[in-house]
Amino acid sequence: MDKLSIEGGHRLEGEVRVSGAKNAALPILCAALLTNEPLTLTNVPRLNDVRTMQTLLAQMGVSLDMGTPGAVRLEAAHIGWPLAPYELVKTMRASILALGPLLARCGEARVSLPGGCAIGLRPVDQHVKGLQAMGAAIDLEHGYISATGRLHGTKLVFDIATVTGTENLLMAATLAEGTTVLENAAREPEVVDLARCLTAMGARIAGAGTDRITVEGVARLSGATHAVMPDRIETGTFLAAVAATGGRVAVTGTQPDALDVVLTKLHEAGATIAVDGDVIRLERDGPLTAVSVRTAPHPGFPTDMQAQFMALAARAEGTAVITETIFENRMMHVQELRRLGADIEVEGNTAVVRGVAKLTGADVMATDLRASACLVIAGLVAEGRTTIDRIYHLDRGYERIEEKLSGLGARIERVR
Ligand code: EPU
């Protein structure tokens, strides 16, 4: 199993380019199921989760051409097998995103129930209830969601704003008969990017990016070409890393307006930030100040940045209160940060982080994707060597992170 070995204490300097967004690419790959014409995607990140989704689609009968680096051409001329098996769903919950498009296109779908995951229970009841309201007959048996029926438009009110739930129903609604209104919809930029791709395919969508999305169903969708949006969480991770180590970095090819609250918090922490088109420049030379964050659905502070900000607070001056409101078990990095010398107390889903003058390198273990990113940042500021085990979590969501950080002067290497 690969590990990352980091020698901490070096400032980051230079320029780094952000990859396409994992959480936009995954639903958009599934959108290929909605049409028998080719969908060409560019800026597709090379990540394990993306490869898993491509394997899943190929098993269903989608042909994939990945001849050009960073691009993929998908053609779902015939869907032979509208099934997402347990073996793939258990490795990647986002496989549930195949449910809506398969049902809308084929009138039937069978997708394994995802089950719990490290960061929380993560039920999919909102996806199921939504499809039922649109006319699907759904059976939950043998660990699978079996759905059949022709979908019709309706008004849906989500009990809870769910990102993949909104994406699943948005895709399903594009081919449903009549108009679907999604209320209390997720407003994340990745939902907007999916809507942009679906619109290019001929879907009729209004309101993406607000909590009320209206979709007028059409009889068929066509092929299209779409560039996946830049990864805002990868961007935020690099920015948090530079704020933590000190230094000066330009993050290029990004979408700054998707990061408003993260940039505000980094500024509060003592960083100087300048935005110029798709480039964010961050510099920190002065003191690093503790900043408190409370996660919330977009446009609030993203849960996917909570762990990285905890690493930042661990070395900052003062005390930060970090509250996780989206997932019930997303503080597993606390235990590992303590191994590096961090002073953190946890009560329920709130962590009180008292900044310490120094962290010291140690052997630590990654428990989930963003916890891994937190440990990388902590390793970059800790004195001495930090070795991070189980980095397969990191490879699910960060493209060549050790290469990109090395390019900024970090002493980081993958140990096979
Ligand atoms: N929820 C329900 N019922 C549902 C769906 C969700 O109760 O049917 C709850 C969840 O348990 C959670 C809350 O609603 O407490 C929000 O979950 P959401 O459905 O929005 O999460 P998701 O769609 O499963 C996506 C991202 C996550 C990210 C969250 C929140 C993808 C593929 N995944 O998950 O990304 O943390 O939204 O922004 O888009 C990551 O990249 O590290 C990651 C975990």
SSE diagram, text form:
Elements: E1 3-7, E2 12-17, H1 22-31, E3 39-42, H2 48-60, E4 63-65, E5 72-75, E6 83-84, H3 86-89, H4 99-106, E7 108-112, H5 125-133, E8 137-141, E9 144-148, E10 155-157, H6 163-174, E11 179-183, H7 189-200, E12 204-206, E13 212-216, E14 224-227, H8 232-245, E15 247-252, H9 260-268, E16 272-276, E17 279-284, E18 293-294, H10 306-314, E19 319-323, H11 333-339, E20 343-347, E21 350-354, E22 363-365, H12 369-381, E23 385-389, H13 392-397, H14 401-407, E24 411-415
Bound molecules: uridine-diphosphate-2(N-acetylglucosaminyl) butyric acid (EPU).
Uridine-diphosphate-2(N-acetylglucosaminyl) butyric acid is lined by residues 23, 26, 94, 120-127, 160, 162-165, 186, 303-304, 326-327, 369-370, 397.
- Give the tally of β-strands: 24
Rounded to the nearest angstrom, the radius of gyration is 21 Å
Looking across the biggest beta sheet, what order are the strands in? Answer: 22-23-1-24
Low-confidence blocks of residues = none
Structure annotation, total helices: 14
Calculate the mean pLDDT score and round it: 97
| Approximate strand percentage | 25-35%
Task: Tell the overall outline.
Answer: elongated
- DSSP helix fraction: 25-40%
- Counting helices, strands and paired strands, the structural category is alpha/beta
Ligand list: uridine-diphosphate-2(N-acetylglucosaminyl) butyric acid
From the N-terminal CA to the C-terminal CA, the straight-line distance is 7 Å
Main sheet: strands, sense, barrel: 4 strands, mixed
